[in-house]
Write a structure and sequence with these properties.
The protein is 25% helix and 33% strand. The chain has a single domain, classed as RNA Cap, Translation Initiation Factor Eif4e.
């Protein structure tokens, strides 16, 4: 008996090169596989490189089926993303935080009243930092967005992985607010 998830998910990967701009960034985006149960999710995680071993500019994108990991997608265009940026002193904790975030969202730890707003989770390697982001579909409902940020903050705090951190929300079209 397989442990069915609340949603069908898709893993995407991209590795941007130096010739990427806003017009062609998605030509490097590759759909890897989809999964709908916990066993397949765990199998995927066991067969891909850990986030902190990806090369600079590479990203993993776990998005709900039918939603592409681009802000122009109809489910993302009015949304935004919660960001956690890990600097050099915390890079050794990135994989643990990445797995915690993935399993919390994909496994259903977020409240059902606002989990429907979450469209995906992205892990990105940048020079000297790792970014983990939760993408959402509606940035105009500030209360629901703050509930997502507060839930993520509590999950991180309860894990004792990081002592100090900042989560910021960036609507895809406007300015950030912090939680």
């Amino acid at each position: 008996m397989k442990s069915k998830l609340n949603n069908l998910w898709v893993l995407w990967y991209d590795k941007k090169n130096t010739n990427v701009d806003s017009e062609n960034w998605d030509k490097f985006l590759v759909r890897i596989c989809s999964f709908e149960n916990l066993e397949k999710f765990c199998s995927i995680l066991g067969n891909i490189l850990p986030l902190n071993q990806l090369s600079n500019g590479a990203s993993y994108h776990f998005f709900k089926q039918g939603i592409e990991p681009r802000w122009e997608d109809k489910f993302n265009i009015h949304g935004g993303k919660w960001n956690l940026i890990l600097q050099k002193q915390d890079l050794n904790k990135a994989d643990e935080l990445w797995l915690l975030t993935l399993s919390s969202i994909i496994g259903g730890s977020f409240e059902s009243e606002f989990a429907f707003l979450i469209t995906g989770i992205v892990g990105t390697i940048k020079k000297g930092q790792i970014r983990i982001a939760i993408w959402t579909k509606n940035s105009t409902n500030k209360n629901l967005q703050l509930n997502i940020g507060e839930t993520w903050k509590n999950i991180i705090q309860d894990s004792f992985i990081l002592e100090q951190f900042v989560l910021e929300f960036f609507p895809h079209k406007t300015h950030p607010f912090k939680n």
